[in-house]
Write a structure and sequence with these properties.
- With 455 residues, the protein is mostly helical.
- It is built from 18 helices and no strands.
- The chain is globular, with a radius of gyration of 21 Å.
Length: 455
């Protein structure tokens, strides 16, 4: 029975963990950057933490669009990778790279010249708004550098090249922390800049990543052979394919990102105490979920590649096995959160109210992890990798806007119940979506070939 539905082969698990482990390491590095930012700013109080958190929301929204473009391109890239068609892979990369460069440039101009107007959408607290606007103006300088580098590294993951991005992010971590320390606290003769100093460190790290990626692209990478100067050579025959399969992913990330932005606006109106607590909880969640997001990336690559190779039955078994792994790592993630919540909060210099809220919210986060893990891997990994991007869009976007946001408004702004219950209500969509996701995956209707013979 198990052999008919699951893959218990050494070669399969070796393939999975060849992607999962570097991705998990990347997620740990990303956690380290966010944790160090949070810890350094946490020593300056709630306003600094809230300012950086809200000031980073437009960047988060732009990055969601970037992930959508790269993820949508990866739907095509992974299946063409299964066919060994490198020329088409390069053409897809050109389309996604040009699109994200334009989007990032427009976002940078808006946020650099109108930071106060943008931040007025998030909070009415004058001190938080001032801190957030200063943070936003500086990090907007790095938008294009980040977008290009991130798009390239995400595209390479679809062809099972994850080591390069791990190395780049590891080096970037030290660059980020070093310059954060200098500019936040005014070390080595630099001015003490507080929240703006954190943005300076982040921007320098983004530029460093861009330099590393450009060097790798032109002097090291030989597997695909994509070059940045070719991004304007668009093959119009592939644009309809890109739109058909990538647009739902782009829409997914944009709708989800906009929803997360609205969620941040709701939190900003609940108060800086809730914003500070939530930002700390998100840092812990990021650490606890490193393997979950690693498996989701592996699922997208493996499922897409297997379908591209024409092995539908194996793709179905792979999906079942990955769902089991998701549940197991969800339980592990919950245990990590419960173990970390007390010692982690001791390093923050925030108000007692914010600490109590964060402590209780982490308990809720732990309880929801096994279900959330299946939800994440189903949408980001299996459904996208299989080409079923429209359902992924409907579930992810619908869950955010139909469930999470209305529940956040009701519980946080109308009923004003305790923080942990507001937090739970704004994560409740997974409990609805999981039933639809499992039914779809077990039916096999998620498997769709997105390649074409004349490509």
């Amino acid at each position: 029975m198990f052999k008919d539905k699951f893959l218990f082969e050494k070669t399969f698990f070796k393939q999975v963990f060849a992607i999962v482990l570097p991705m998990a390491l990347q997620n740990v590095i990303s956690f380290g950057v966010n944790a160090m930012d949070s810890i350094m700013l946490g020593s300056l109080g709630d306003i600094a933490v809230s300012g950086a958190n809200l000031g980073g929301q437009p960047f988060f929204l732009m990055s969601m669009v970037g992930f959508g473009l790269a993820g949508g391109g990866s739907v095509l890239i992974s299946q063409y990778w299964g066919q060994g068609n490198k020329e088409v892979i390069r053409k897809v990369m050109r389309i996604s790279m040009l699109a994200i460069t334009v989007v990032a440039a427009l976002a940078a101009v808006l946020c650099f010249f109108f930071p106060y107007q943008v931040m007025s959408l998030y909070t009415h607290e004058a001190e938080v708004q001032q801190a957030a606007a200063g943070y936003l103006r500086v990090i907007s300088i790095g938008f294009v550098f980040y977008a290009v580098a991130n798009n390239y590294m995400n595209s390479l993951r679809a062809v099972e090249n994850v080591k390069m991005s791990t190395i780049v992010y590891a080096m970037s971590f030290f660059v980020n922390v070093f310059f954060n320390y200098i500019f936040i606290f005014g070390k080595f003769g630099a001015p003490e800049m507080g929240v703006v100093g954190a943005a300076m460190g982040t921007t320098i790290a983004r530029i460093f990543e861009f330099v590393c990626v450009t060097f790798y692209m032109y002097f090291v990478e030989k597997k695909i052979g994509y070059k940045m100067h070719c991004m304007f050579k668009i093959d119009m025959e592939l644009v309809p394919d890109f739109i058909r399969y990538a647009l739902p992913v782009i829409g997914n990330e944009m709708i989800w990102g906009l929803g997360a932005t609205v969620t941040s606006m709701i939190m900003g109106r609940i108060g800086s105490t809730f914003v500070a607590a939530n930002s700390i909880v998100n840092v812990v969640a990021q650490l606890a979920q490193v393997f979950i997001f690693g498996i989701s990336n592996a699922a997208a690559v493996i499922c897409g590649k297997t379908i591209g190779e024409g092995m539908r039955d194996r793709a179905q078994k792979a999906a079942h096995t990955l769902l089991l792994m998701a549940f197991a790592f969800g339980i592990i993630s919950a245990a990590v959160i419960l173990l970390l919540r007390t010692p982690f909060l001791t390093i923050y210099d925030i108000t007692p109210q914010a600490k109590t809220s964060a402590y209780n919210m982490m308990f809720v986060l732990a309880l929801t992890q096994p279900i959330a893990a299946i939800d994440i891997i189903s949408i980001i990994g299996i459904l996208r990798g299989g080409g079923d991007t429209r359902l992924a869009l409907a579930l992810d976007g619908g869950g955010m806007w139909i469930v999470n946001i209305p529940m956040g408004i009701l519980t946080g702004l109308v009923l004003k119940i305790p923080a942990q219950w507001i937090f739970l209500s704004m994560r409740s969509d997974s409990f609805v979506k999981i039933f639809i996701e499992l039914k779809r995956i077990t039916s096999g209707r998620w498997i769709r070939s997105v390649t074409r013979d004349d490509a």
